[in-house]
Design a protein that fits this description.
The chain is mostly helical. It has helices at residues 6-21, 27-50, 60-76, 82-104, 109-128, 154-179, 182-192, 194-199, 204-230, 240-253, 260-278, 283-297, 303-313; strands at residues 139-140, 232-233. It has one domain (6-238). Helices cover 73% and strands 1% of the residues. The chain has a two-stranded antiparallel sheet.
Amino acid sequence: MLRLDKTETWLLAATVILLTAGFLLPSWLTFILTLAFAKALVVQGVVIQMRAGLVSFGQGLFFCIGGYAVGMGGAFLDVHDVFALIGLGVAVAVGVAAIIGLLMTRYRDIFFAMLSLALSMILFGVIVKNPTLGSTDGFNVHAPTLLGWAPQGQEQKLAIFVLTVLIAGGLALALNRYMKSGLGGVNEAIKENEIRVEFLGLSPRWILYANYLFAAGISAVGGALTALATGHVDPEMAFWTTSGEFVFIALLGGTTHVAAPFVAAVLFALVRTYALELAPHSWQMILGFVLLAIIIFLPKGLWSLVAGKRRAAA
């Protein structure tokens, strides 16, 4: 019988609360939360690699693959079930990662970051030059079904929100177990001293390769959920600013806890929404000031506030 630790208990409680709130909150807020949680899954992929000392500036590559798999599955393959579409996106993303990961895991530091960015921009260029995929405008996603049920209008938005919360909660539980496992601890050791890890008889490269595949899969899930929520995909999903946004959120929340990316993603979405409303021509500057303040006063991210209170209480 599996025993839940304190973090997992809180994650389950948060999932139940969010599911209940979804039936009470206004539709515009549930839509923002859906996108925030979907992007938080991509950020989890970034965080997994950051914990091992690698920063991916091209996670939009797999985010875009997940989104376009949903769009192309409905448009060209006549597949409309959400679970089949998400599975298709994960399969394609992991397949691509399995190939390019053999190259990526040879590089470290700025070389890894720039190469990941280059690969993401290659996908952006391919899509932009392809009129079948809508070129720069992208294309709309066909109405999805959920195990044969075809919700419409507000029901569809609520169903996607519930699905996103359930998937995010399940993956958060799995990630928490992974981070606290022996393999999760090895990531920290690789970040500190990769050579010593090799002397212990482990292969840092293959551990990083496994991280890369997992990050690709979970990022594809985020991209698929985003496409289902918005009903549209476009090349901007692979653009460098999108990948930079994921790194921004990772820095905003910190890498020490599995809940940090979700909190940071929700805060980022709300700040950007109100910044666009109050200062539509300078909202990027507001986000820049927020990140600058976090780096100066909370270099380990927002979650360091919670961790600091726990240490003080102890």
